Prior knowledge:
Number of domains: 2
Bound molecules: threonylcarbamoyladenylate, magnesium ion
Number of helices: 12
Strand order of the largest sheet: 1-2-6-3-5-4-7-8-9
Distance between the termini: 44 Å
CATH topology of the largest domain: DHBP synthase
Number of strands: 14
Pfam family, one: Sua5_yciO_yrdC
Helix content: 25-40%
Domain YrdC-like: 14-202
Strand content: 15-25%
GO biological process, one term: regulation of translational fidelity
Amino acid sequence: LYDPKSIFSVASEEAALMEAVKLLKEDEVIGMPTETVYGLAANALSEIGISKIYSVKNRPQDNPLIVHVSSLSMLESIMPENRIPPIYLPLLEKLWPGALTIIVPKADIIPSAITCGQPTVAIRFPSHPVARALIERCGFPIAAPSANSSGKPSPTLASHVMDDLNNRIPLILDGGQCDFGVESTVLDGLRNPPAILRPGGCTYEDIQKLPGMEKLQVYRKHFVDKQLEMMPTTPGMKYRHYSPEAAVVLLEHPVDGSNGRDTVAAIQKEIDRLVEAGQQNLKVGVLHTSDEFQDFSDNKAQIISQQMGRASHPEEVAKAMFVGIRHLDSQGVDYIFIEGISEDREGMAVMNRLRKAASTIIQL
Ligand code: TXA
Ligand code: MG
């Protein structure tokens, strides 16, 4: 548990939870761990709490929030006529609690500040024990966007929340490093066919094999929709996202594969180009999944390279990605070169975030 004014540890988890519940009941916002990323939590039924979320993270007023519940009965209690759309039932049985957010019709009890006037609301049942305990004890659903300041990489450690929101919130519950490291998958099952609006921790492969999801599509990969494109509700479309101070250069492997040597050569070429263009005292970070980087150095630039998991294990890359970007950024590098992976399983969410973070994409 952190108190941004005076970091302290409380004697027990119990005392930390009690303090968090008290603050949420007083319409405060706090940092909360989830299995995906840290959230900036407030009472989802409180207009005051919700307005504080937007101001604390400097979030555009037209970007709607996810509501977090701790049981199916809590979900039912905030649905119109207490009815969950049947399309979701097989998914909830298999994939909840977890990294799946569903879009459902909005009931009157949900303040329109959460949905930014949309007729639908996004709901998730997180599996992280601290998040679950917190929601259960509050007895009300919790609205929570990722707890970064708007536009920055998402926080996967309590210290990231401290770095971004220091002095702006009274408390952060420290639940350790987030297991997934990328945000939840946002699924719109009200569309026909159902569509993933934002790939995330719950994979396309796991959703698609469930009843009713055979024709599952991924927005922008399988279809585009002019109307969706214009809406800020379509995750990550309208606003700049995941951007550290350093410029991010993404190196994308072709679908039929290339190897780490190609990545090394491409980075060296890009460093040469930057130096020739007059960049001095170049300091670059490299986040890689290939082994060829073990003793990677370059006489034209200072290089800090860091392994971001193995490409064959996309869940490792997802977990290490934001923490790696934030770490290199804190070292004051000018550029962060990142080696992309294939879009299988968690790789789809990884590449979605990296393409948004990148100011330059180099196809290998
Ligand atoms: O893993 C997560 O989802 C984390 C943790 C804290 O739960 N939360 C998170 O929230 O990533 P945020 O606010 O950073 O992203 C929520 C996304 C936004 O891109 C928003 O556009 C989308 O969900 N969203 C919210 N309500 C929606 C709606 N009614 N229709 C479509 N998209 C919606
Ligand atoms: Mg976010």
